[in-house]
Design brief:
The protein is an alpha/beta fold and about 500 residues long. The protein folds into three domains: about 90 residues, MurE/MurF, N-terminal domain (Udp-n-acetylmuramoylalanyl-d-glutamate--2,6- Diaminopimelate Ligase, Chain: A, domain 1); about 230 residues, Mur-like, catalytic domain (UDP-N-acetylmuramoyl-L-alanine:D-glutamate ligase); about 160 residues, Protein-Tyrosine Phosphatase, Chain A, CATH 3.90.190.20. The strands form four sheets. It has an eleven-stranded mixed β-sheet, sandwiched between helices. A six-stranded mixed β-sheet has the order 17-18-22-19-20-21, with helices on both faces. A five-stranded mixed β-sheet has the order 1-5-4-3-2.
Amino acid sequence: MKIQDILPELAVREFTGDRTAEITAVTYDSRGVEGGALFVAVRGYRADGHDFVEEAVRRGAAAVVVEEPSRAAGSVAQVVVADSRRALAAAAAAFWGHPSREIAVVGVTGTNGKTTACFLLEAALREAGRETALATTVYNALAGEARPARLTTAEAPEVQAFLREAVAAGASHAVVEVSSHALALSRVADVEFAAAAFTNLSHDHLDLHGDLERYFEAKASLFDQRREGAPAVVNVDDPYGRRLHASLPGRVVGYGAAAEAGYRLADVVADWEGLTFTATGPEGEAVELTSRLVGAFNASNCLAAFALARELGVAADVAARGLAQAPPVPGRLEVVPLADGGRVVIDYAHSPDSMEKALAEIKRLGGGRLLVVFGCTGDRDRGKRPLMAEVARRYGDYVVLTSDDPYYEDPEAIAREAEVGLERAGAVSPDDYRIILDREEAIRFALAAAAETPPTVVAILGKGHEEVQKIQGRTVPCHDRALVERALAELGARGNAPAASQN
């Protein structure tokens, strides 16, 4: 492909150089540039791609996209645009031949539940005999093969390349978890969606968006990218969902317990083994749905997936079978039973609302005292830290405040900001909580404490499925499930901790 084939897709302000330059790749990372690449200089949180134009050219870039003319480009083709992030998405889509026009891409957005809804929808589609691709926070999958996911929603070149690979593999549907970052930063700007869903919205990611209104606007923008006639499936139990439902054109169906929902849930029964509920569709047909997922709030995620499947033409009984067979999602209320009757629950909850939902459900399910282990992410919304701590204190009989992903912040400083919420909620150290910054040590302490007062439920929140910690630019192995198993083995060998149940 030549640069002149991509130019019509870009809002070009100025062009210099050879229009016939051959393009072999589209990238925003100068370190990955090889001969013939189109390098798009984007401005990031810690680095500005414009500072790496010279490096990209030295590595063999055939053309560069910039927001202001750069002498560092030398004699290679140079495209000047107003918004290089938007140009990156357009260039990537053009380079990969707009694959979203050849496959049914389903986007799921919202603060909580979107990963789970994606997994469940993919299970329903596979039960219907559809070939699928899956892109989520937990992992990506194509033709049944899982691969690591670096971000909830990858950057535009990776998104378009994945969709092209899915098309080549014969997939009819791609289920994509769409983050607010992806929408605000144009990562999916040139993806056409065959269906889209909104789960809910609460306090999160305000470091990027500034306030809830702009956060909502970012989420809502997904629905502007629907194909003509593509359905929107919206949670009308959520205040922002009701607002979105009322404002969208085209095919819009609500789901939830509310009377106005097109897909309604009722009679939810949830325990530590899973859940059942009744789903009634727009035509009045009622179906009993079951799931292996723990947590009554997952009925809403199941219903979102059921509604999407039905809107995409999957029969109700087939969708129900798919949901029933879907395994629990890694790191989402993942339960490790203990031999003394207690449990360890690992969950990705890392916002006040998601923590509230997870802890309230754990408390409702019962099982003894509740000990909460959590931390707060660095370089992110600092305002939610004390709010998260207040939630932990409200539900937990004891709290262990530890480290999450500090990134470039001081872990102790992060913990002290969160500690304000514990103190505000009346907690006193060490009677009600303790700060243990080493996450493995914190988990070991919690499990040892649980063994002293069985049965106890230990809720370990924040990282869920993640297998690393990000500290001062380093990536350190850190997988909560593995840390739990190691701690139980060590404590059990000393005779002061319950072993994990074989059930």
